[in-house]
Structures are given as C-alpha cells and as structure tokens.
Write a structure and sequence with these properties.
Length: 173
C-alpha cells in the first residue's frame, strides 16, 4: 500500500478508502502483461498466415465406440473416436475408426486418419483413409488405398495398393 502512495493511517475514512481502492485498481490494470499475438503461424517453408482465434472451441472432444479416443495439447476442435485412437495436438483434426482402430494424427490442422493403423503426422488438410496408410506432412495430400504412403509435398495422392509419393506437388501414384 505504501508503494502505491496510500496513507494507511487514513484508511478509516470511507471517502479516502474509496479513493485509495480506485488508485490501486488503476495501478493493477496498468501493470497487467499485454497479451502476445497468437494468431499467426510462421515456419521456414511458409510465410506468416493469419488463423482465426480458437480459444472458445473445446480442446478435447471424444466419442468412444469400442473404447475411447484421446486428444491432447490441441488448440481445439479435434475429434477422436474408436479404440486406441490418438490426436497429439493441432486443430480441427479427426482420427476415427470403429473396427480395430489405432489411427493417429500427430498434429497440424484439418487432418484426417480414418483407416485401421493409419497415420497423419502433421501438415494441413491431409487424409489417410484406408488401412495401413501414412501421410507424413505437407498439405492436401491423400493416401487412399491399403499401405499407401505420401511423404510430403502438396496435393499428392497415393491411390494404388502400396503406392508411394515421396514429395513434390500434384503427383499421383
């Protein structure tokens, strides 16, 4: 109180007390740390891009069919359903399989792992839709037949049995 300039001997006076409380509130408001902008993502491969503020979206949402999916450390809007399903983080990711399960989305944004033992490691808008499929990252990539793999890049599709696309853009295997 003394550091704020309040005379503690005058606190019995209700007018002075009211004035002192107003002064303390104003000083506390001035000392609050300013929030840091968290609406941009910057990586070495891409320039900054604005994302909508997602604080109001729940960070964990789970609908267990034969067990329960787990979502951790996400910004929000993730959905996990099935046995052994995991979403490690990110936002608006979906991992679901009601058969044997065990599909995983590591992070990123708007990714889907829907096949048994399918994995999307990260990136954005990627899909691993069949059993044993993998998309390592990048954007808008699809692994849609059993054991298909897309390692990265943009708008690639592994659409044959056991097909692999290593990277680049607009490739189909």
């Amino acid at each position: 109180l003394r550091q704020a300039g309040v005379d503690i001997t005058k606190l019995k006076d209700s007018v002075y007390l009211s004035s002192a409380l107003s002064t303390l509130r104003a000083k506390a408001q001035d000392q609050k740390p300013k929030p840091k902008p968290q609406d941009q993502i910057r990586t070495a491969a891409s320039p900054a891009r604005e994302l909508p503020f997602i604080q109001a979206v729940p960070s964990v949402r789970s609908r267990g069919g034969q067990g329960c999916g787990v979502c951790t450390n996400g910004t929000g809007g993730n959905f996990a359903k099935g046995f052994g399903i995991t979403i490690g983080g990110g936002a608006y990711n979906t991992a679901q399989n009601t058969k044997d399960g065990y599909c995983t989305v590591g992070g990123g944004r708007s990714n889907k792992a829907e096949g048994e033992y399918s994995v999307v490691a990260g990136g954005y808008g990627n899909l691993a839709s069949h059993d044993d499929t993998t998309v390592s990252g990048g954007g808008s990539n699809k692994a849609i037949q059993p054991a298909a793999t897309v390692c990265g890049g943009n708008q690639n599709a592994a659409s044959g049995l056991g097909a692999t696309v290593v990277g680049g853009g607009n490739n189909v295997a």
